[in-house]
Structure formats: C-alpha cells, structure tokens
Amino acid sequence: MTSMAVVEHPGLLPGSLGAARRHPRRTTRDWLVDSFCFLVSIGWVLVATLDAASPSPTLAERLPYAWMIPADALVGLALSATLWVRRRWPLGLALVTLPLSAFSMAAVAATVIIYFTLVVHRRTAVALAITAASWVPNMLFALLRPEPGHSYWNTTLWGMLLSLLVLAWGMFVRARRQLVVSLRERAERAEAEQQLRMAQARQLERTRIAREMHDVLAHRISLLSLHAGALEFRPDAAPDEVARAAGVIRSSAHAALQDLREVIGVLRAEASLAEDPERPQPTLDDLPALVAESRAAGVRVELGDRVTEAERLPEVVGRSVYRIVQEGLTNARKHAAGAAVSVELAGRPGDGLTVEIRNRRPVGEAAGAAIPGSGTGLIGVAERVDLAGGRLAYGRDDSGDFRLAAWLPWPAT
C-alpha cells in the first residue's frame, strides 16, 4: 500500500474515549481537511491517468489492455468521493479498497487516506489486521502493474514498508489524541472537584458561623426575655429599676441586631472561606464579661477560676470554653430561672482544661412565660467538644442539680 501525506482532524477518538461521539457534527476544520484530502486524491487520479496514457515503450507491459486506463480513473474518482464519509465507515471502506488496490494506481491516494483514517479511529487490533490483509493485494499489484527498472520483490517490499510507515504514523496520531483527551478530561475533573470542594467549604463555613451565632443570639435574647419578664412581673417597680432594665433591654437588643446583621453579611459574602469571620472571636479572657452580663440581668453566678498558665491556652480551646459557658448560662436562664449558677474552670498545660456549669435547685418560679428553645444548643456543644477531641457530660446528678461538664485537651507544648 503506497503512502502519501495526509492531514486528519484532531477530534475525539472512537472506542474507549470517543465512542459516544463517533459521528460528531462536521466542523469548519473538518470541511477544510476533507476538502484538502479530496483535492489531493483527485490530483493523484489525474497524474496517474496521464502517466498511464503517455507513450512509453513499456506501456504494453504495464497495461496490456487500453480500457484499463479509463476504468482505473473511474475507480480512483469513486474512491475519492468516498473520502467525504470515511470518518463514519472507515472499516467498511478499507475492506472495499483492499481488492481494488491490487490493480488500481489512480486509487492509491484515496486508499492511503482511508487506511490512515482507519488506524486513527479504530482499535489497534483492527488496524493490524487490515495492514496484514493489505499485503496480499500489494503482492498482486507488483505482478499486475510492475514498475520498470524494479524487481518484483523490491516493489513488494517497498509497498509493505510504506504501509507500515502509515500504520506507525496513524498510531502516533491516535496516541497523541488520546493523551490530549485524557488531559482535557483530567483538567475538567479537577476543576469540577475544586468547585465541589469550594461549595463544601462554603457550606461548612456557613454552618459554623450559624452555630456561632446561635450561641450568641440565644444568650442575647434570653437576657431580653429575662428583663422583659421582670418588668411584666413587677409593673410597680421603682422608676430607676425600670429605667435600668429598659437600658439593659435596649443594649441587648442593639447587640443582638448587630450580631444578626454581621452573620447575614458573612453568609452573603463571597470572600475567601479560609479566613475567620471578621468579628474577633471570644476567648477565655472574655468569660468575666460574660458572667458580669448575666449578673447584670439578675442571675446569681459564681465563677471559680483555677486555670494555671492561662496565657498559654490555645485560642481554639478558649473559644470552645466560652461557648460552653455561654450555652450553660443560657440554659440556666431558660429552664431554671431564679436558680444560682456556678461556673468552675480548672486545668493546666498537659492535663487538659475542665469546665463545669451547675444549676442549683430553683428557688422560685420563672417570671412570665418560659423562654422557647430550639433544642440544638447542647447538640452544638457536643459537636464542638467532639471536634476538639474532648469529652462532654450533662444531666441531673444525684443531688438533683443540672450539671454540664466538659474536658478539653490542652497540649503541654
């Protein structure tokens, strides 16, 4: 099988990579490539026909019958026309051209193009089988149309060598396209995975912010409810007490609105998710202010701090302790109004940090209606402690007091 230059469209391959797109819509590049291949094949038919029709002393040996010249030209033109559909039926066209290649010189260009298309778009086993089968008509071609000045075996070996070159060229193009398709798929997969990771990170960050704001807003709103209930319970209170309670309600409402505004702004923002929320997060140093705020609301709170080297406590642990105490105080105001609350902190580097909030027996009924709760506060605390690698216990003890206790790891270094 004779070889010549062929340019193919570098689209997706059939088989394992491109079976779903074996017959894609013809693009502008496809039209240009097909037009070029058709013109090359027509040009070769013209050259081969003129060469066969030219006077030559060996013409009688090469073409013993004159009618073979126009017949060969018709075969070449017919195969040239099939080049427009060679991508759809490369195997069928290759099988049709095998017997024709035993005697047709005008069809050589079209045959090589079809053969190259087969190698590029079909499995290697199919290409090797067609290559081996093409050697039979190649041997017959050297008998039917011998080349002047060349022996039979010389012509046959050159045909086999050129078919192997076309096979190697087509397999190289096929491997290159497979590599390009594989790299494209890997890039698309990596981009999709990156978008998925970003979406998951965004969801996790928003969930974390929502939990943080649940703790903050629950604390603020419980203070509002407590003071409003006191005003409702004692409408005849002194003006200065009413003014003081109203001031606390106003400041708590303002702080709650500010917290809510911040969380909505963060949830709407598309900023980097790797950064913490802009608002500074509370730590262990903010616990006295939290306790003082509860005392100002009328809650009896005792704080016992037996933490050694508190300045070495990691901020993450301190933030978790703050949230645990905040949730404990909020629950005490909701479910044990009027009861005294004790907060005990103890720990040192290497031993961990222990925090315990205990509600003593209520000494009176709650003023007004009970504060509704979402029921997720302790669940959030449990998740926070679990993520930190600590332990959490809560519930009624033997004395009937409600106890919320947590142990958090505190590395020595």
TrEMBL record:
**Coiled coil ranges:** 173-207
Keyword field:
ATP-binding, Coiled coil, Kinase, Membrane, Nucleotide-binding, Phosphoprotein, Transferase, Transmembrane, Transmembrane helix, Two-component regulatory system
Signal peptide position in this chain?
none
Q: What is its EC number?
A: 2.7.13.3
Give a yes or no for keyword Iron in this entry. Answer: no
Q: Does this UniProt record's set of keywords contain Protease?
A: no
Q: Which domain of life is it from?
A: Bacteria
Q: Which GO terms describe its cellular component?
A: membrane
Domain Signal transduction histidine kinase subgroup 3 dimerisation and phosphoacceptor: residue ranges: 205-270
Write out the GO MF terms: ATP binding; phosphorelay sensor kinase activity; protein dimerization activity
Name the catalysed reactions. ATP + protein L-histidine = ADP + protein N-phospho-L-histidine
Q: What class of enzyme is it?
A: transferase
Transmembrane residue ranges: 31-53, 65-85, 92-118, 124-144, 151-172
Q: Name one Pfam family in it.
A: HisKA_3
Q: What InterPro entries does the database record attribute to this sequence?
A: HATPase_C_sf, Sensor_HK_TwoCompSys, Sig_transdc_His_kin_sub3_dim/P
This one is known as histidine kinase
Q: What is the organism field in this record?
A: Micromonospora radicis
Lineage of producing organism: Bacteria, Bacillati, Actinomycetota, Actinomycetes, Micromonosporales
